[in-house]
């Protein structure tokens, strides 16, 4: 099956973007090639920009505290494993503490590194990090993978408390999913929301189904149309047959 997650508000949209950036950057850091480490450094710059939104840290702290209180209310519930509950609550508490320990502007230590900021400025120019533009960066890329990886981990590690916080929030959000099966008539589906608030919708299709969902939603209605996947540049075409799919509603 292949799933497509659609955030319904800006906060979840930011968390999903950051999750993608953290996953991609961590994978690239663990590789060996200089080009991979160049891309990892660009990922760190992107994380710094996206996560520097002033209220992200306070949003995560508030959401973690809200989830901690909700989960704590499940104690002594015979349908809930006390060990599993303790594990989640301890994880929330330790992440909450690490977030509180973060002081100052997110990634400020990176902004104070003139060498990194020179690279960040140049990468916005197409082809702007050639060896004649930044000889010291060329030298760094010629160092051993271990040396480059140690530097990347030193720059990335202080950014990880935000990742741990969003990992918990997104896991709880995904675990909250309530799924239903529907059929899109002639490739289109509409459902009235009736004022029901959701934070994320997930559309799931079989792997071999040649269709891509496009979704728009507000507090009044959910609209989905399934288009024929194409890389030719032609205008998107809506599937002209009925199509079965699963729609999941996620809300904390």
UniProtKB/TrEMBL annotation:
One of its GO terms (biological process) is FtsZ-dependent cytokinesis. SUPFAM superfamilies: YacF-like (SSF160950). It comes from the Bacteria. Keywords: Cell cycle, Cell division, Cytoplasm, Septation. One of its GO terms (cellular component) is cell division site. Its main location: cytoplasm. InterPro entries: ZapD (IPR009777), ZapD_C (IPR027462), ZapD_sf (IPR036268). Cell division factor that enhances FtsZ-ring assembly. Directly interacts with FtsZ and promotes bundling of FtsZ protofilaments, with a reduction in FtsZ GTPase activity. Interacts with FtsZ. This is Cell division protein ZapD. It comes from Chitinibacter mangrovi.
């Amino acid at each position: 099956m292949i799933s497509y997650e659609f955030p319904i508000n800006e906060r979840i949209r930011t968390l999903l973007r950051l999750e993608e950036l953290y996953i991609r950057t961590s994978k690239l850091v663990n590789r060996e090639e200089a080009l991979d480490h160049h891309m990892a450094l660009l990922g760190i710059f992107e994380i710094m920009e996206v996560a520097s939104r002033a209220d992200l840290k306070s949003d995560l702290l508030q959401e973690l505290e809200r989830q901690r209180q909700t989960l704590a209310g499940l104690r002594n519930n015979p349908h809930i494993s006390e060990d599993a509950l303790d594990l989640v609550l301890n994880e929330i508490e330790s992440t909450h503490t690490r977030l509180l320990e973060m002081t100052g502007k997110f990634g400020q230590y990176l902004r104070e590194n003139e060498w990194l900021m020179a690279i960040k400025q140049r990468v916005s120019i197409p082809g702007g990090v050639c060896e004649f533009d930044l000889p010291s960066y060329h030298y760094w890329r010629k160092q051993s993978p271990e040396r480059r990886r140690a530097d990347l981990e030193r720059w990335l590690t202080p950014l990880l408390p935000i990742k741990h916080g969003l990992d918990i929030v997104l896991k709880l959000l995904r675990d909250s999913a309530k799924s239903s099966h529907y059929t899109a008539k002639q490739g289109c589906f509409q459902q009235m929301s009736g004022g029901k608030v959701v934070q994320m919708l997930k559309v799931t299709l079989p792997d071999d189904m040649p269709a891509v969902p496009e979704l728009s939603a507000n507090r009044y209605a959910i609209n989905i149309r399934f288009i024929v996947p194409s890389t030719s540049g032609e205008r998107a075409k809506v599937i002209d047959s009925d199509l079965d799919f699963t729609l999941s509603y996620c809300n904390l």
